Amino acid sequence: APLSLHPRPQALAAAEEMIMAVARVALLALAVAPAAAFLPAGRSAAHAVGASAARRSLNMVTAQAPPGQEAGNVMTLSRFMLEAARENQDLQEMEALMTSIQMACKTISNLVSRAGIADLTGAQSGGGSMNVQGEEQKKLDVISNDVLKNALRYTGKLGVLASEEEDHPVLIEEAYAGKYVACFDPLDGSSNIDCNVATGTIFGVFEQKEECLIDPEENLTADEAQVRCLLNTLQPGDNLKAAGYCLYSSSTILVFTMGNGVHGFTLDREIGEFVLTHYNMQIPKRGKIYSFNEANEPDWDEGLKKYVANLKDGKGETGQKYSSRYIGSMVGDVHRTLLYGGIFGYPSDKKNANGKLRLLYEAAPMGFIVEQAGGKCSTGKESVMNLHPEGVHQRCPVYLGSVDDVNELETYL
């Protein structure tokens, strides 16, 4: 069906203005910061400020930096994608898509940081507004969804998108022949907004199937076009071309992969750019942290109960007692697991036979990221990446993290 937007709230109009402002700052940063590092003494104060900002940003880069990153030569996400597209022309369209995604993430980051001030906390429409999963929508759920849709629809590279907040896949009329399909959760963990706990955006990008591409000359009916959209979105995680998440917390960090390693970029608000801070992220083979919602423990399978009990008692394969950490925001919990190792899980139970996490825009994208970083993602029985979705909002149990930890878990299930 044609793209249908929610009524434009005042906050959305402000968000669109913010996108344009951030874009102007980003263009200025691209023009000034890289060149400023090579300026001789005596150049203008504006160039000196640019060079200073670049050096401060570079200090955040981890010891394992990409080849060629020298003092003062800041690797922004925009530059990273430009160089990747220059080396591989097949990534030129992905570059345009990532530019829109990072702009949307900057906007959502600003909205989240100002939620209390701008009256963006609380439920949509005063309460009672539900998404297709029967979950109450927050104000920022709806606004974030619109920000991402509006940012992606005009790239000309996207034919179909699927969102947690949309009942059905949305056909982008401006780009019937777009190369890509995007699936996203615009604001994961939105129930945490009111108490100022970490939230995030999750996205996955597939290529459209050739047999499902829509030609404007076909004159399809709305129902026929919707069926074609559905076929494009129902792809296994193994077909992902890119995936990522943006964590909105004490800082804003965007972590993504295009199938050749995982990289993290932290938002430097001084220059309005995502700056490379985590190059070629690798998850430890074994961790010391487990992350489950233990309030559901009475409804778990006996094997899972025994696994977690053994971790607590130091009776697992390592013989060490594990610590428990659980935020209730998948992006925050997975980000910690990616950095420190261990295991994150949202299992099936007596109340939710298929678990609660959505396959297309939560489990598969996060699984792709973790496996690209050397980890593993499983349902407990098989790889999440091999699951062929039968519905856009299909759920599945998820266990992901360090390879040795996930392998040990599977012996209990």
Fill in the keyword field for this structure.
413 residues, single chain, 10 helices, alpha+beta, 8-stranded mixed β-sheet, 35% helix
Parts with pLDDT < 50 across at least 5 consecutive residues: 1-8, 24-64
- Cα distance, first to last residue? 42 Å
Structural class designation? alpha+beta
Using the CA coordinates, give the radius of gyration.
22 Å
Question: So what's the overall shape?
Answer: globular
Q: Fraction of residues in helices?
A: 25-40%
Number of E-type strands: 13
- Average predicted confidence as pLDDT: 81
The oligomerization state is: single chain
Annotation field: number of helices: 10
Query: Major β-sheet, in short?
Result: 8 strands, mixed
What percentage of amino acids are in beta strands? 15-25%
Give the SSE string: HHHHHEEEEHEEEEEHEHEHEEH
Biggest sheet strand order reads: 2-1-3-4-5-6-7-8
Write up what this structure looks like.
With 413 residues, the protein is an alpha+beta fold. Helix content is 35%, strand content 17%. It has helices at 10-36, 45-58, 77-87, 92-113, 139-153, 222-233, 302-313, 330-340, 359-372, 403-410, and strands spanning 158-163, 170-171, 180-188, 199-207, 240-248, 252-257, 262-268, 273-278, 289-291, 323-324, 343-346, 376-378, 398-401. The protein has an eight-stranded mixed beta sheet with strand order 2-1-3-4-5-6-7-8, sandwiched between helices. α1 crosses α2 and α1 (10-36) crosses α4 (92-113). The chain starts with 9 loop residues before the first helix and ends with a helix. The model is unreliable at 1-8 and 24-64 (pLDDT under 50).
